[in-house]
Structures are given as structure tokens and as C-alpha cells.
Amino acid sequence: MAKTKVALIKCDEYNLKEVEKAINYAISLIGGFDRLRKKGKKVLLKPNILAGKEPEYAVTTHPVVFEATIKIFLENGFEVAAGESPPLEPLGIAAKKAGLLDVVEKYKIPFYEFKNPIKISNPDGKLIKSFNISEEILNFDIIVSLPKLKTHAQMYYTGAMKNLFGCITGLQKPHFHLRFPDRDDFANMIVDLNLLLKPSLGIMDGIVAMEGKGPQGGTPKKVGLIATSFDILALDLVCAELIGYKYIDIPIIKNALERKNFFISSPEEIEIVGEKIENLKPSHFEKVKITSEVHFLQNKVPKPIINFINNITVPKPHFKHKVCIKCGKCISICPANALQFKNKNKNKFVHIDYNKCIKCYCCDEICPVKAIELKIRPF
Ligand code: SF4
Ligand code: SF4
To answer: Is the CB of 362 under 6 A from ligand 1?
Structure first.
């Protein structure tokens, strides 16, 4: 049986011509555009615009990768649009800061802020049998995930599959965190979403990746990678391994591989084309530490004991009050209402109720100034 191809291309800088060349070459190595043409002409690009951060912070898909992709698809005769739903900021503001709005305006392509969700049935979903998805997404033949290669405090790695969580409209996102506080359940929800959206291509921006405490508070790290695949699970698996994770430790990848009827089921089904993975692996890449919640004890010991063990083994947010700029973003996004401003000696500070905290790390993800640390502390 033919293997699923993942193309790895060395690309050292955000130079439009070089990036265009790299993406074009990568797509040619995985089979070219014919496969996409069979699906139709309407292409939706889904960049990662987690927040309005300038490109050098490596939080968002770089505007040069975004521009190169738009150019390539337009030159190949496709109709191109882009869309995203940043968790807290209006799309226009976040995309302007991230440098993507200028690109959209230059090429005069439609740019959708995902709103107006409608209920769509997802019969193959394991946890979610229907999603409320933005109407606009349904008008496209081809969805292209354009992630930034980053670590993720909650899911360890965020890639092409997790990037599609941005297709969920803004206010629904915290609701999903609250509904699925368990990491494995959240991963299965993302897999379900991928089953519904059926992305056709992933193009990974790994020229400058993010190591450390991603997806916003980490450190930019040059990797020099452009990677593509028609199978975004395969793309994620290879990219996660490239930065030093074991693919099986990444909950979204592990759970997707288990759904053998819909996805590839093992790395043996993948063929890497282009550059060898060894030639692109950074000598050091600071990853998020894998922590295991004690699911294996479930139904064997009482829940309060499991909760206690989780409390002393799973990191929780701690607030560095001197660093905090009191923007309130963490409070707005917290799905569990665990955060509020309090005053002490006329000083305002963020107070956390650890009994309510579900350890989703949305607060850490959104904090613009790295004022939150994730630490283990027994209670
Ligand atoms: S305090 Fe932070 S980690 Fe805890 S539930 Fe709220 S957003 Fe999630
Ligand atoms: S901890 Fe971060 S997100 Fe929360 S109020 Fe302070 S600066 Fe804003």
C-alpha cells in the first residue's frame, strides 16, 4: 500500500522567494496539486493567529509563509480565502499586529472572522456527534491548516490538527475546555473536529518555531523547516518527533492513531520525502514536560484520592503579580470562573481559586506578558 508522504524542506529565513520555493517543492514531493484540484477550487487557509503578537515572537503563522501560500494557490488557479477566530481579540486587530492583515489586503482575498455558528452533524465523532461551526467554513472545498511549530502547555505540542480548534467560534472555546477538562478527552474532541472538517493539506511554519512554554509564552527557536502533507496527522507526528517528542506522548496524535478507520494507525505508514529528519532536528529543543494524570486508577480508588494525587502531580497556574499588567485577559478566558481581581493594600491582583481550576492553562496561553507560571504545588 502506498505510504502517506510528509515533505520536509530546509528553509532558513522568511524570504518570500525562498519560502515560496520551499512550499512549492514540498507540495510537488507529496504529489502536486492534482489531488487538490479533484476536490474543487475554493480554498480556505487557516493560519494560527492565537493573539495579536508581532511575527518575531513566533506565536502566529509568519506572514511570509501565509503570503507564499496565498500566491501559490492563486497561481495554481484556486480561489483563496482565509479565516480564523482568535480567542479574545477581534480578528482585524490580532491579524494586523501579526502582519497577516496586510497580506490579506495586498492580495484582496476574503478574510473571515468565524462567527454565526450552525449545528453540523458529526456522525463519526467519538465524543462530539455535532459541532456548531461557522457557516462560512462550509462553503469551501479545501481547508489548509497553516500552523506554527510550537509547544503547548496543556497538549504538549500544537500543530496542524490543534490549529483547527480556531474554526470554533470565539466564545465556544472556553466552553469546550470546561466540558473536557481531561487532556485525553480534549484531544479526542480535537480529533472529532478534524473528522468533521476533513482538512486537505497542512503546511507547517517551522522556520522559527516556539520552544519552552508555548503556545504564547515560550521562546522563538530557529528550526529552519517547512513541512507539508495531505495528511495532517502524519504531518503532526513527524513534526512532533522532529522537535524531540515521542509521538505517542502527544494526546491528539495518540488518539487519532487509535481511530484506524479514519486515520493512519502508525508511523510505519508514513514516508518522509525531501530532507532527512535527522538533518533538521535541532540539537536542543525545550519541550513541555509530559505529566500523567492518574487515569489508570480510575474505578479502582475513590475519586477524592485521584483528585488529591492529580493536585500534587499536575502543574497549576501561579501568578507573578509584579509582572502582571492587569489586562484581565486571563479572567475573561477562564472557563471555570476560577480567576478574579482582588485588592490588597490598594493593590489589584489576580486571585485564583484552585478548587475551581480545571488546569486547562487557557490563562497561561493568553497572558501577553508571561505573568503566569505553571508549577506543582500540593494543596
Ligand atoms: S485558572 Fe487558568 S488553568 Fe485554571 S481553569 Fe482558569 S484558565 Fe484554566
Ligand atoms: S496574569 Fe497575564 S493575562 Fe492575567 S491579568 Fe495579568 S497580565 Fe493579564
So the answer is: yes
Instruction: Evaluate whether residue 178 is within a structural domain.
Output: yes
CATH number at residue 369: 3.30.70.20
User: What confidence score (pLDDT) does residue 314 get?
Assistant: 84
Nearest-angstrom CA–CA distance, 13 and 208? 8
Q: What is the CA radius of gyration of the chain?
A: 20
Q: Relative to the CA of 372, which ligand 2 atom is closest?
A: 1
Residue 290 lies in a domain: no
pLDDT reported for residue 172: 86
Residue of 186, 351, 361, 376 best suited for mutating to test ligand 1, as the one with most atoms within 8 Å of CB: 361
For position 5, what pLDDT does the model report? 98
Run means of pLDDT, 10 residues per run, the chain, 379 residues:
95 98 98 97 97 97 98 98 93 97 98 93 96 92 98 95 93 89 95 98 98 95 98 98 98 97 97 98 95 64 71 87 96 95 93 93 93 80
**Nearest CA-CA partner of 27 in 197, 149, 237, 203:** 203
Residue 286, pLDDT score = 97
Residues contacting 131, CB < 8 A, separation 6+: 119, 120, 122, 168, 192, 193, 196
Q: Is residue 287 part of a domain?
A: no
Can you give the residue range of the structural domain that contains 328?
A: 295-375
Pocket test for ligand 2, best of 331, 341, 350 (most atoms within 8 A of CB): 350
Answer yes or no: is the C-beta of 328 below 6 A from any ligand 2 atom: yes
> Is the pTM for the entire model greater than 0.85?
yes
pLDDT at 266 (0 to 100): 97
Q: Is 336 in the pocket of ligand 1 (CB under 6 A)?
A: yes
Report whether residue 371 contacts ligand 2, using a CB cutoff of 6 Å.
yes
